[in-house]
Specification:
2 copies of one chain form a homodimer.
Chain A lengths: L1 H7 L3 H12 L4 H9 L7 E7 L5 H14 L4 E7 L6 H13 L6 E7 L7 H14 L4 E6 L4 H7 L4 E6 L5 H6 L9 E4 L7 H13 L12 E3 L8 H18 L1 H29 L2 H13 L5 H17 L1
Parallel strand pairs in A: 1-4, 1-5, 2-3, 2-4, 5-6, 6-7
């Protein structure tokens, strides 16, 4: 299969075509993902998330230049899983792509959720396989916002940078459950703005309340200015230390196994659904059920329990 | 069941308790929803969506005061399906609740997605049943942002107001596929800001490209200022006309049937999943599968195909 060979040789055109196959939910995408799978595991995937405007793209750009200076091949996958309002993000990525257009060691791609079958996280997982097998050593997995769909996406990463910025109500948001759990390293960007130190204290306070230890970082909170490059070296060093410790302790392997587990569960769920749609002939039955419910002749959960009961009997026969 | 009676009598305390049962995914919530179901169908559900900051809450407040002047009982369900960053919105709702605190004809409730089993849209659907059966004649279903999860939520409504505002990049966003499809009426808020007329032209241009007719509104684009109350009477009139025409044409019945259909599909899917988890003993098997995949001894989709094939054989036996 020449597409497979092209990807393994790191050809940009083959990589781009494979990603399009995955995005469009083409049937051959699954077989391709399986063929690539043995060649994966070499890349480090860094999730980058945070509120819109917190400076994720600028930060990733700073990190890319450093990796390139060391000769490492880098990919960026910018994902907008929750919003059809993605004009701005896509525009920004197009600007970024121009900046790195002449550098064959950098691959940048945006993914929107529209038209993606089987969930964004599943599609992202397969795209990561393509980039990994194509020899990109670091892959930045960047989300547009920080919602539940975004959390599912960054769960595919080996380490997650959560970006915060002073002002913008982040002080309150940080205290909310669910957000602190996403991040491995907490990056306070725009550290020249007033309130940066206050935000740092608040993040550290919330972290101190957590039971489990924070992976491998002595201090997981880093103040940076992506604009002026301040603190980026410190962040890079902290990230490297975190990853080394996660590898040593086995936390990285655990996380990668969890990722595999979620992938199995997701794929299993999608297959079983397709199968059941055929099995209970939902398309043929549902119109009648809808009419009965519309006329309030039965109630929804009662009807569903009845149907599932019938199914189980059928299977057992 | 006294909870049921309390809800049917429109008691705020009973309504609030029922909603909590649904939010927490308590087992008795399904039976309650089924018992309420025959008493539903009387409420009109108005979805209100749009980017954060477009003024959804202020607009809904303006509409509430008008409905109250006519003696109608009104409920607001503010839903944040995608973001754990919901501090701001919840704060806003608390302020609003204070404003209407002394009015027993207004019920306002926020729902976050955390802890909600079986999907936000499903939980919202059941909460709407509670509010409907409790005799609220108009229910505003308000989302925080405008993402894919939000779209699933406003699909529960009889009519959807999509709020836009001049500036904020909405001009570009409006052209994006997916967004225009949500709205039945397009409300340009903050119409005193520069660019309001330009935005109106753009929205109307995009609407003119659509194949299907726009329900029942002669002009589905309305300029308002929720702040100064400008245009709200026109909007209310346009909404009423839209609903009347949708009722006359049968479009409203079609939409309500579609809502029922999605509800059946969702509930069926959740039940079947629970059943399968027990059937294939996923918890017992998955660790071994994860290890095999982690060692790259097999590939994910191949493994899932194999398991599903095994399942089908078992069922057929």
């Amino acid at each position: 299969m020449e597409l497979l060979e092209g990807i393994l040789a790191g050809q940009t055109r083959a990589v781009a075509r494979a990603i399009s196959l995955i995005e469009d939910g083409e049937p051959e995408a699954e077989a391709l993902a399986d063929e690539l799978f043995p060649h994966t595991g070499g890349a480090t995937v860094i999730g980058v998330t945070g509120s819109p405007g917190s400076g994720k793209s600028s930060l990733v750009d700073r990190l890319i230049f450093r990796e390139r200076a060391r000769g490492r091949r880098v990919a960026v996958l910018a994902v907008d899983p929750s919003s059809p309002f993605s004009g701005g993000a896509m525009l920004g990525d197009r600007l970024r792509m121009q900046e790195h257009a002449t550098d064959p060691g950098v691959f940048i791609r945006s993914m929107a959720s529209r038209g993606t079958l089987g969930g964004v996280a599943a599609a992202c997982g397969d795209v990561l396989k393509v980039l990994d097998a194509a020899g990109f050593q670091t892959i930045y997995l960047e989300t547009i916002g920080v919602g539940q769909s975004e959390i599912k996406v960054v769960e595919l990463a080996d380490a997650v940078l959560l970006l915060l910025m002073p002002g913008a109500g982040d002080e309150i948001q940080v205290l909310k459950a669910g957000v602190m759990e996403i991040g491995d390293l907490f990056v306070i960007n725009k550290c020249d703005l007033p309130g940066a130190d206050k935000l740092r204290s608040e993040v550290e306070y919330v972290l101190s309340l957590k039971d489990q230890p924070q992976g491998g970082a002595a201090d997981p909170v880093v103040l940076v200015s992506a604009l002026s490059d301040e603190g980026i070296d410190t962040l890079e060093e902290a990230l490297r230390a975190w990853l080394q410790e996660a590898q040593r302790s086995g936390a990285l392997a655990e996380r990668r196994k969890l990722r595999i587990r979620r992938e199995i569960e997701g794929a299993l769920s999608r297959k079983v659904h397709a199968l059941l749609d055929a099995h209970i002939e939902l398309p043929r039955q549902i119109e009648g059920w809808v009419e009965r419910l519309y006329r309030r002749e039965t109630a929804p959960y009662a009807l569903v329990r009845e149907q599932v009961g019938r199914l189980v009997k059928e299977w057992k026969r």
